[in-house]
Automatic annotation (TrEMBL):
Cofactor(s) for this UniProt protein: Mn(2+)
SUPFAM superfamilies: Nucleotide-diphospho-sugar transferases (SSF53448)
Domain Galactosyltransferase C-terminal: 198-266
Pfam families for this protein: Glyco_transf_7C, Glyco_transf_7N
Its membrane topology: Single-pass type II membrane protein
Protein name: Beta-1,4-N-acetylgalactosaminyltransferase
Protein species of origin: Operophtera brumata
Length: 309
């Protein structure tokens, strides 16, 4: 009886010191959570950091250039309920999910690349919402949905590579790599590339429909197409959810690039640093991309590329 009580007290002590230790570790090593450094761009200097370029062969009949100041200072949010609605008429979208403002000449052409499988209802909501959202942004854009049709584990990074290749062929100078379950709320979150690759989904308040996996990092990245080519895209080797983001960030850093974000905010990232050598980067990525294109269909709201990896 006595011994049992002593053991109990000892256990309590161990538990207590263990907790203290863990709490201290968390407080004394904040860099565990902040190993990645970001360049923060405040609102007033966003316009100076944008990469102005439109797609090869894109023409606009508008006379004056679009002005993005009112987009950046737009404080409104869109209603998330839009995902349940139908698209409002009047937004001229060309087959394949491409659109551009009519009344001014856009300075940006952006390919939105969405890796996808099995979430038809979510995709529908995403498309309606995004086209409505882009209407306020005055950019030229096109939405590419890359669907993995085989039954192997989902390979998000490889699908992004395939989408990037399609966007390059269509002449887009800027890529936005986009998960289908993330929606930007503020029209101020301009879908264009900055001079540095930009992590878009952490600096905005956004909503996920579901959380099928913990992905605080992936989300939405904007990157100049030439930079994506420079780092040889993403690795093709990550089947299933995990690791591809770290690999991607490591590529970005290996080539001397740095990520940026619009306006600072408490960051949520964790995960360990991870490096890949230039040799491996050169061998795995756009340069080694192999897949079977099952079909490409131009839908009214998006370009649908079905692939067997
Ligand atoms: C742009 O137009 C030229 C001439 O018609 C064509 O050769 C080229 O492939 C086009 N580029 C893209 C990206 O479509």
């Amino acid at each position: 009886m006595h011994i049992t009580i002593m053991r109990y007290a000892l256990k309590k002590k161990i538990l207590f010191f263990g907790m203290v230790f863990i709490v201290l570790m968390i407080f004394l090593h904040p860099d565990i959570n902040a190993r990645r450094s970001y360049e923060y761009i405040d609102k007033d200097s966003i316009l100076d950091h944008l990469h102005e370029e439109t797609a090869e062969n894109f023409t606009s009949s508008a006379v004056s250039d679009c002005d993005y100041r009112d987009v950046i200072y737009d404080d409104t949010t869109l209603s998330i309920r839009l995902v349940d609605d139908d698209l409002v008429e009047g937004h001229r979208i060309r087959v394949g999910g491409e659109s551009a403002p009519q009344d001014c000449k856009p300075k940006f052409s952006t390919a939105i690349i969405v890796p996808y499988r099995d979430r038809a209802e979510q995709l529908r909501g995403f498309l309606v919402y995004m086209h409505t959202f882009f209407r306020r942004q005055k950019i030229h854009y096109r939405i590419f949905v890359i669907e993995q049709v085989d039954s192997r584990p989902f390979n998000r990074a490889k699908l992004l590579n395939i989408g990037a290749v399609a966007a390059m062929k269509a002449g887009y100078p800027c890529l936005v790599l986009h998960d289908v379950d993330l929606l930007p709320l503020r029209p101020a979150n301009l879908y264009s590339c900055t001079l540095l690759p930009r992590h878009m989904s952490s600096s905005i308040n956004q909503l996920r429909f579901v959380l099928p996996y913990l992905n605080l990092f992936g989300g939405v990245i904007a990157m100049i197409t030439k930079q994506y080519q420079l780092i040889n895209g993403m690795s093709n080797e990550y089947f299933g959810w995990a690791g591809e983001d770290d690999d991607f960030y490591s590529r970005i850093e290996t080539y001397g690039l740095k990520l940026c974000r619009f306006e600072a905010e408490i960051s949520m990232e964790r995960r360990n640093q991870f490096t890949v050598g230039k040799t491996r980067i050169a061998a795995d990525g756009l340069s080694s991309l192999k897949y079977t294109e099952v079909a490409t269909v131009l839908h009214p709201l998006f370009t649908h590329i079905m692939v067997d990896l």
